Amino acid sequence: MRHPYTRTRRRRLLAALTASFLALAGAAPAVAGDLHPSGADLRSSGAEREPSAAPALADGLALTPPMGFNNWNSTHCGPEFDESMVEGIADLFVTEGLKDAGYRYVNLDDCWALPARDADGKLVPDPARFPHGIKAVADYVHAKGLKLGIYTSAGTKTCNSAGFPGALGHEYSDAEQFAAWGIDYLKYDNCNNQGVDAKQRYTTMRDALKAATAKTGRPIVYSICEWGQNKPWEWAADVGHLWRTTGDISDSWTSMLSILKQNLPLAPYAGPGHWNDPDMLEVGNGGMTDTEYRTHFSMWSIMASPLLIGTDLRKASAATLDILGNREVIAVDQDPLGKQGTVVSSADGRWVVAKEMKDGSRAVALFNETDAPQRIATTATAVGLPAADAYTLRDLWQHRSSNTAGTISATVPPHGTVLVRVFADRRWAAHPPAVELGVDGRPLAVAGRTLTLTSTATDLGRTPARDVSVALTGPEGWTLRARSPRRAAALPTGGALRTTWAVTPPQGAPAGSYDLTLTVRYLSPGGERVSEALPLTAAVVVPPPAGTSYLSDLPWLSATSGYGPVERDTSNGERPAGDGHPITLGGVVYAKGLGVHAPSALEYYAGGACTKVTADVGVDDEKGAKGTVAFEVWADGTKVASTGVLTNAMPAQPIAADVTGAQVVRLVVTDGGDGTDSDHADWANARLTC
Ligand code: GLA
Known about the structure:
Layout: H1 9-24, E1 67-70, H2 72-75, H3 83-95, E2 105-107, H4 133-143, E3 147-153, H5 171-181, E4 185-189, H6 198-216, E5 221-224, E6 242-244, H7 253-263, E7 275-277, H8 290-302, E8 307-309, H9 318-324, H10 327-333, E9 342-347, E10 350-356, E11 362-368, E12 374-379, E13 391-395, E14 400-404, E15 407-412, E16 417-423, E17 435-440, E18 444-446, E19 451-459, E20 465-473, E21 479-482, E22 487-491, E23 496-504, E24 512-523, E25 529-541, E26 548-550, E27 558-560, E28 567-568, E29 583-585, E30 588-590, E31 593-597, E32 600-605, E33 612-619, E34 628-635, E35 638-647, E36 653-658, E37 664-670, E38 680-689
Helix pairs in contact: 5-6, 7-8, 8-9, 8-10
Bound molecules: alpha-D-galactopyranose.
């Protein structure tokens, strides 16, 4: 295996010189974020650093990850994919400021051509979608200062079942046609490859593009799309500018998360001109929450991934445009040092990922994979910064700067990411101290009864926070009273204001989730007024009935399932609610139970009144041999029973857990360590005794 770091110093020096020449010549687009948030220009401080790796193709292309649009994630081969869409996107790049934010490529995916080549073996654009041909679209896009990309497959046909022509055996002719049309980017897929060696197929197209662009003088960025099947990160650095590392993304949290986890370990292989590609963005397509889309965009950026917008911008919401247009986050992605962020720590779904930036700062993502709020913490030295009295901490979603004595931490909402940039600069004292908000315990209350909650406001800064006060607000009808002081004259470094609150939902409040907000207000030493808010979710719960009840007859606090919803008294059918079958384990049919798909977690309120959970568990008979899962029962934060890995071939296994005193009982199913394929898990006869 050839590792990207083993290249010689001479090549790196040459590459660095080429890169700076190109930058001077204006070939690399200026990107937002070179300026320190405090206004200081820090570019020079990183100038003597070496880039992490040479631009492998030494053609000066894709020195930062490509940014643009591709229609696939929003249209697939639907009729709305046509000339007016593509040109409409190009218009919006300009009018919505996305071009200014760095987006350049407008890329066509599969289904732009007719199924048959013409008599000369040339590709023919579908006249229904592209009545004026591709060259006309290229001219339109170029006139706006943008670039056009196209798609084909390194096979006899593309991936779509209609059978559009692929380029295998036609590489030189097709590359010439693309170059003649003025194409700037080629995505080269892997379908119908006839078993021909991948390296050979992708190298042939590289050489064909080189030959074709030598004639036109218009370079083409080359995107390898073989889904990571042949570990392209090991051989493609001098073949293409980017390579897909995984199968296709879809617009769901589980898909995005699984791709993220596959791409994170590949950090050493990325660098200027040769990038890992975890697939195009789903931001805005509707299958995730805006919190999840901010995570998607934050994590793709910290991984120095290509940022190809995959939503139809003509229909995008303000929130979507806000995410895609966040220049401080884009600057993390586009940093000219070109390093992919690496995992600093990950425990129980709390991830810290850090990316070294050219100016010496670090971008740091605090990412919460779990379904509950989590405090995620690291330090400036742990993310690679030199020891210092204090640091400037810039929140890239809130667009606010503060100072920290070294701790980088936050309570991160479920599936959320706090993305910051941390500078070991001398200007930290110009910013107010960072104050971290947190709460102990979880706000669960029975209607009309009081629960207590403790909040903390901690000064993470080097400077004191003065005139500090916290407030807790909630929905109408709720009573929220401080039972201990909620003000402090000053908090020194590390000092905390702890406040106990009595929280009472009104009598008759229906069970469910409610929003509370914890706010802190304080003055910086310079007299700046600061306020910081932490959204909290409270739940009104129903006390569990005395005696033994089937869990499928009780309301749950929360429920997640890898595919489809959790089903009561049937197996999991993977799609809409109610599509399961009778729960069947080892040939035995159960009338009661819960059907889930790994990974899954179900929470029930026990209120300290219950003693026992019992069930017969296993992989439902409806699936084949690939189904392997493991079951766990948790009493608050403690695992109190587990099964080890169970397979589809095994009969039901009894599980019994002592949950005495637990407020919350949690039933967890993991994938058994081999992915989630066929993981239909049943909690048959699941019962709770209180
Ligand atoms: C493959 C690719 C996708 C998309 C489709 C088009 O699945 O991985 O990104 O291009 O083909 O058919």
